[in-house]
Structure formats: structure tokens, C-alpha cells
Amino acid sequence: MKTAHPPTVSAIRPEDNHLLAALAPCTLARLLPRLKFAHLSLGQVLYEPDVEMRQVYFPTDCIVSLLYVMQDGASAEIAVVGNEGVLGVSLFMGGESTPSRAVVQSAGGAFSLPRLAVKEEFNRHGELMHLMLRYTQSLITQMAQTAVCNRHHTVDQQLCRWLLMSIDRLSCNRLLMTQELIANMLGVRREGVTEAAGKLQKLGVITYKRGKIEVLDRGRLEVLSCECYAVVKRETDRLLNRKPRQH
Amino acid sequence: MKTAHPPTVSAIRPEDNHLLAALAPCTLARLLPRLKFAHLSLGQVLYEPDVEMRQVYFPTDCIVSLLYVMQDGASAEIAVVGNEGVLGVSLFMGGESTPSRAVVQSAGGAFSLPRLAVKEEFNRHGELMHLMLRYTQSLITQMAQTAVCNRHHTVDQQLCRWLLMSIDRLSCNRLLMTQELIANMLGVRREGVTEAAGKLQKLGVITYKRGKIEVLDRGRLEVLSCECYAVVKRETDRLLNRKPRQH
DNA sequence: AATACCATGTACGTTACCGCACATAGTGGA
DNA sequence: TCCACTATGTGCGGTAACGTACATGGTATT
Question: Measured between alpha carbons, how far apart are the two ends of chain B, in Å?
């Protein structure tokens, strides 16, 4: 068997997740005893469609995709969640499951919180509730924009957006990700990604090599991306009031 | 000026909205004094992007589209809301606005409830809160599926889905809707809709004439539609537990 | 009844993406 | 060192939807 990469222990504190970090100390203190750190590996499935979720996850340095897989096997990414958010919103929204699947797209850490603990704290109707609901709205924005993007924008633009969303959720400009996997997320052919990525490399915006992608010119990536990236970013910043003005 | 159609007064009771109907009598009684009935006309804009909402709307027999309009004027429908739901979820989710716009797609009635009244009742953390959150999850499902649909399905299939979603929210099989408007919702060319609708008419599934569409064979429409319609319907039924099993 | 407008039909070249087939080149394990 | 595997590159015909242009035929206004 291939030697697993030693779980790069870089972000292991609850505060590495922005939502947990935003909680008042006393709220966080209540949760701490029940928060469990876990390393999530590439490809790991956190939730299967229509199966009751057993816990929420607060990513610290992993990235998780919400994917819908169709009957014929084709797939499409609905949203992506990293250290800015939480997985399993259906637990407090009341549905307990969704028709989509949650797959780890970039290995890393996350804190899990059991279902009961989530509901208990949510039912205090305090800051955690309000924070979770606001985050859920930002997730809604992301999904809505994904719908728009899928309708109107080219693969080239969508790849730019996807890369930006990914590096925003990591601490560095590199990601471990094959074109095949990106194609799965975007719901396009692998060859389409090869072509789009080739153009970006030729432009000097990224470099890549067998599953390792590095973003060289973030600014240019933003220009080449469609407006969807900025719309979601602005709205997310607004909702979770991270610096109302970022310039 | 063209004589406005006399506001067809067909659904004017709060219980004509499924969410209001699901509330316990005492809860509804609290809301009643502040619920205001209004006739919403075709094309009316309920919310503008990024503008604070002033009330929620519970449709009784109108249909409202959540639309995102891009910088270049192109648009795409994100979700559709009728008597099964409520408009303005951002008011209780905490964001107060969204980047999208809400436009009346089919004229009809709705009850509005002022912002403060919504928050007051929501903050009781009772059945209204739970109902609204579950509805919001069903809205999330719809948006997610719209993203998938935009990625993978043909205009033909999407038109079928769109027609089904529309007549589900009306009491009859007819809708007043030009192909131009449908094209705006789907985010495709008007000619594309003409072609798709032409095929459906040739098959005897619908008939239409200058802005009047009638569905003749609902069953066939479901077969011709993509799986997205059924996924959203099943999930919505589950979440708002309207007959857990519908067969 | 005449007219202006609007909804729909149709045609045609263009483009983005698909499906498929196959070539090339790193990489890890035997 | 060799081999098998995986990731990426490339070419080609097919197709769905686009942009544009224009024709036809209802409907409302005068």
C-alpha cells in the first residue's frame, strides 16, 4: 500500500475554524468537551445522500465538496466548505439529511460535534444559532451562484472560480488535485479541464504537474474568473462580518 | 392602457398557503392581525438585490421567481416559490437581503407579514421557527438541484421541469406565460424555448397560443423531464411532511 | 377596417463542449 | 532497472445551444 502522507498537523485548534473562532469563550467552552478532532482523508465521504447525519464537522484545514451524483453517474458540485464554515447544516435546519453527498476534496483536519450536542446548543437560541443561520445563508448564496455559473459561464471561467475558492480555504497556494477530480467537481470532461488548465499555465497564472497545482498569480485568476466568485465572496464576508470593507 | 385583468380572487385565505395552514391555530391567531393580503401582479419585483427586505410573503396563488441578473443583463432562475413556501427567508436567517431579485412570474395573491412581526414570532423559537427552517432546507434542495440541472440537462428537459414546478403551484393546468419570459427564467434563448415547446406541442403534451400554455398530459411531462423534478418534489414532501409516502 | 405591436416560427453559420480514441510522460513498487 | 499505472496531452467528428436575421400570424388600439 502507498504510504499515507503523514497527516500534516497544521491546523488542530478549534479556533482554526472561523465559525468556532467567532463564538464567545463561554459558548466555545461548552462545546469543547464534545468537539473531537479528526483527520479527514482525500475522497472520504462524510455524508451519503438521504442518510441521517450523525454529526456536524467544522473544518480547520480540509476542504469538503457537496456533490450531487446523478442516476447515470454524472456529478456536479453544489458548494464547497472549508474552514470558513460547517458541514451538516441539515441537522439544525431540521431535515437530518440531504439528497447530496459530502466528499473530502482536500485532506486535512476538522472538529466533529455529535448531533445531540449540536441540537442542544442550537436550542439555546443564542449566538451559535444565529451564527449557524447566517452561515447557512452564505451557503445558499454559494449554491445560487453555482446555478447561475453553470448556466452561463465557460469551463475556463469556472475553473478559475474553483481554484480561487479552493486556495481561499487553504493557507497556501498549492493544492493536491488531479484534473480528473476537478472535472468531477465541475461536472465536465477531464479533457476540458486539461485544456483550460493548459491555457492558465501558458499564461503563467498557475503551474501544475501530476496532481500538484500551484497558483502563481492570484490577481489574474480573479480577472479571468467570472463575477460569481466575487459575488459569493462579498456576500459571505458581509454575512459573517469579516471586515465589512475589505479594501 | 390595457385593461388589467380583474384580480382573480380565488385564494384569499391564509390557509391557502401551505406553511400558514400547517401552523397551530393559536400560532396563526397571533399572526393574523398583522397578515396583510395583497394582489401581486405579473412582473412585480418583491425584492431587489442587496436591498433590505421589509416583509416576508406567503403566496396563496401567485408564483414568484428568485432570479439572478448578471452584469451583462443575462439572467437565471435560482428557485421558484408558490403557495408551498415563503419569500424572504433572509429575514430570519439573519442576512436581511440577498444578491438575487424576486419577481412575480404568475400574478395572484399573497399575505405579507412585516419584518418585525416575523422576527418576533421566529424568536419565540416555536413551531413557526421550525417550519421556516425546514422550508428553507427544501429551498436549498431546489437551488442545489437547479445547479445540477443547469450543468447536465437539455433545454427540453428543463422546460418540462419548469412547467411541472409551475402547475404544481397553481390550481389548474394553464399558465399565462410567454416563451420570452420562460427563456428569461431558464437563462436560454427565446428561440430555444420555441423549439422545445414546439416539440412538446407536437407530442400532444401541451398546447399554447400567444402566452397561454396548457398542460394536457402531466404524466408524459414527468417522463420527459429530468430526474431533478422528482428529487426536489420528494425532498420537499419529506421535509414538510406532506404524506411521507405518496403512493 | 387599418395599423402597430407582440408572440411565435424558421433558417443558418458559429461556438463550446462532448465522446471517443490514442499518445506521451511522470511515478511508485517489484 | 524495469514495469505497471496514473496523469496529462491531443486530435476528430458530433451535437446542443448561441447570435442573428427575418418571416408569419395573432391581438389590441385607433
Answer: 49
Strand C-proximal residues of A, range 185-244, CB below 7 A, are: 187-189, 191-192, 209-210
Which nucleotide is the nearest neighbour of B193, by CA and C1'?
C8
CATH no., domain A154-225: 1.10.10.10
Q: What number does CATH give the domain A10-148?
A: 2.60.120.10
- CA pair distance B79, B66, nearest whole angstrom: 5
The ranges assigned to domains in chain A are: 10-148, 154-225
Residue B212 CA to C7 C1' — how many Å?
A: 11
Chain A residues touching B74 at Cβ < 8 A: 152
pLDDT digits 0-9 by tens, B68-82: 999 999 999 999 999
pLDDT tens-digit map of B5-35: 444 557 789 999 999 999 999 999 999 999 9
Residue B112, SS3?
A: strand
Tell me the mean pLDDT in the region A11-15: 89
- What is the pLDDT, as a whole number, of residue A88? 98
Tell me if A90 and B152 make a contact (CB, 8 A cut-off). no
Match 393580503 to its residue by C-alpha cell. Answer: B37
Round to a whole number and report the distance in Å from the CA of B3 to the C1' of C4. Answer: 18
Q: Any idea which nucleotide's C1' is nearest the CA of A193?
A: D8
The helix or strand, by DSSP H or E, that contains position A174, with its residue range, turns out to be: strand A174-176
Whether A191 sits with its Cβ under 7 A from any strand D atom: the answer reads yes
B53 in Cβ contact with B96 (< 8 Å): yes
For residues B96 and B119, is the Cβ–Cβ distance under 8 A?
no
| pLDDT-based confidence at residue B2 (cuts at 50, 70, 90) | very low
pLDDT at residue number A247: 37
Question: Which nucleotide is the nearest neighbour of B1, by CA and C1'?
Answer: D29
Cβ of residue B198 lies below 7 Å from strand C: yes
